[in-house]
Amino acid sequence: MKRLAVNRYKCGYCGACIAVCKFNANELVETYLEIYHDKCTLCMACVKTCPMNALEVVE
Amino acid sequence: MTDCDVIVVGAGPGGSLAAKTAAEKGLDVLLIEKRQEIGVPVRCAEGVGREEFEEFVMPVEKWIASEIESAELYSPSGYRVKLSADQAGNEVGYVLERKIFDRYLAMLAGKAGAEVLTKTSAVWMKRENGNVKLGIRCMGEFQEITAKIVIGADGVESRVAKWAGIDSTLKLNEIESCVQYLMTDIDFNPTTTYFWVGRKYAPGGYIWLFPKGKDSANVGIGVMPSMAERPAKYYLDRFVREKFPEGEIVEVVVGGVPVKGAIDTAVSDNVMLVGDAARHTDPITGGGIINAMKAGYHAGITASEAIEKGDYSESFLKRYDTRWMNDFGQTLVRNRKLQEKMLKLNDSAFDRLFKGIGEMPIGEMNVRRLALELFKKEPKLLWDLREFLV
User: Fold this and answer.
1) Residue B367: per-residue pLDDT
2) Which of A53, B166, B282, B324 is the most exposed place for a label (fewest CB within 10 A)?
3) CA-nearest residue of chain B to A45?
């Protein structure tokens, strides 16, 4: 099944992905990006916004 | 009875100013910051204009990294426009050391009487009997705190906005995706800021170099996700390889900057939003520090009036909307429209414009004014922009 994955070695925990998510499918817990897969629709908004290329959709 | 009058979520410049202002008005204020160190990690290019900044806080040497006297802008083919403040007779801007500056402001809030808690996140929020209850996690321990008002200064990723039902989700053409390197071993004039514009460099944004003292500088980029085909980091790396191949990167800074323009409202019952949480950043420059401080001040004043009246309803708090709208909100609206026009310029248009201008004196660093000067050279664009030129 396809799902959104964060590469924690690339993530700069800037929160840009949260600002563009209209499904409330993510949260920045201090410096840890939490993704709520049940809410994520794979709309790609966060993937396109991430400055560090830390987000991708994986099988 | 509530535990305190006001909880401010987020100790950036907006939150600290709100907490300081409310505490000075005699309110019982709690300022919480999710990071264990206030000011870190930085998410900012750290530039501010001098005049407006000094209305809020007098500069202290320990957090002024550089004093800026001029700016240079480069078009895609390398035509340069110089902006100098020689005629103004003094520096036009500062580059801050945000790590120290943010702490300084939080300390001012503390000295004014606010209680400050770090490593403390807001976890949930609900309204109850006209008040507001906030679940917080303070150094790992859960607590519930009731207050009359919550001021959400919790940044671009604001949770308070979402809990409060204020939809501030950004579309892909309403945010700049940013990366910045603190670089050393590169050549620059320490009193000059540099900008590179055009799609070649930064689709939907620009590249900047802001000096931090003589030996290092913030070299960063913002791109608009709706226009960029690759991540911001790709474009910055390409630029750095070309311009500063010998430079060393000693810090990486990442951020998302709202360029939505003004939102309809930054309040709901018991809640006001400040700074990035309220999308208060300038759509053209991406600058947000001064607007955040202004908003923090207005929110603090409004909180004290609301508490004096015993009315924390959305309709009462609307006066905060009026205040920030009159102060800088109109400019956000105007600059958003101007930005939309600028985004239509292709690289050869930038080259033509820059070639035609060369050098111009300015009294203050004002990118909007520069944009207008640029467009005056291009009558077709001028007609498009007539509403901005009065």
Assistant:
1) 56
2) A53
3) B172
